[in-house]
């Protein structure tokens, strides 16, 4: 499914397993759990505004990654305060019809770029109505203001992953 791309696409920019990952919009932790399974040495900072989703993930979905730290707050202020550098920043916080506008700006994408370790990548899930790619095109153009390389991976009729790196 689309969340598998969050594990695979970083290798378009990287030649090694990620050491540190930030997941912005962790929900119940599908991607964080998969990192724990397939990359057990990777440290995951999982940011989810709704603590109840993390609880549900732990209770019902096997979210037991011992290298995961959960942060229950808004992604952008959290990233602004962070001084850490990440090999991968995964963004999965866009949900139609509401998309937090402050997670789509040039300034936000510059912030993500500044929080990446050298050679790192940003992976963004862009959910959209079937057959409509307007949002994806606008986000790609905005990403290109902060990153020289942007690729798209249309995973499903309603999900495209964007990957950006230097």
Overview of the structural elements:
- The protein is an alpha/beta fold.
- It has six helices and seven strands, in the order H-E-H-E-H-E-H-E-H-E-H-E-E.
- The chain has helices at residues 2-8, 30-38, 51-60, 75-81, 106-114, 134-146, and strands at 20-24, 43-47, 68-71, 86-91, 116-127, 149-156, 159-165.
- It has a seven-stranded mixed sheet, sandwiched between helices.
- It is globular, with a radius of gyration of 15 Å.
Total beta-strand segments: 7
Average pLDDT level: 95
What overall geometry do the principal axes of the alpha carbons give?
Answer: globular
What's the gyration radius in Å? 15 Å
Question: What helical percentage do the residues reach?
Answer: 25-40%
How do the strands line up in the largest sheet? 3-2-1-4-5-7-6
- Beta percentage is 25-35%
Low-pLDDT sequence parts:
none
Q: Characterize the largest beta sheet: strand count, sense, and whether it forms a barrel.
A: 7 strands, mixed
Order of helices and strands: HEHEHEHEHEHEE
Distance between the termini: 26 Å
Count every helix, treating DSSP H or I runs of 4 or more residues as helices.
6
What class would the helix/strand composition place it in? alpha/beta
């Amino acid at each position: 499914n689309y969340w598998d791309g969050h594990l695979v696409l970083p290798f378009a920019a990287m030649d090694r397993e990620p050491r540190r990952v930030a997941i912005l919009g962790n929900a119940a932790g599908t991607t964080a759990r998969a990192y724990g399974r397939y990359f057990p040495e990777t440290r995951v900072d999982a940011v989810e505004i709704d603590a109840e989703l993390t609880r549900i993930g732990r209770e019902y979905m096997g979210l037991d990654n011992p290298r995961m730290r959960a942060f229950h707050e808004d992604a952008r202020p959290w990233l602004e305060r962070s001084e850490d550098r990440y090999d991968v920043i995964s963004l999965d916080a866009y949900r139609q019809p509401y998309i937090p506008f402050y997670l789509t700006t040039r300034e936000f994408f510059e912030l993500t770029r500044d929080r990446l370790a050298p050679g790192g990548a940003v992976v963004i899930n862009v959910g959209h109505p079937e057959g409509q790619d307007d949002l994806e095109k606008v986000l790609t153009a905005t990403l290109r203001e902060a990153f020289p390389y942007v690729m798209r991976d249309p995973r499903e009729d309603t999900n495209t992953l964007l990957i950006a790196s230097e």
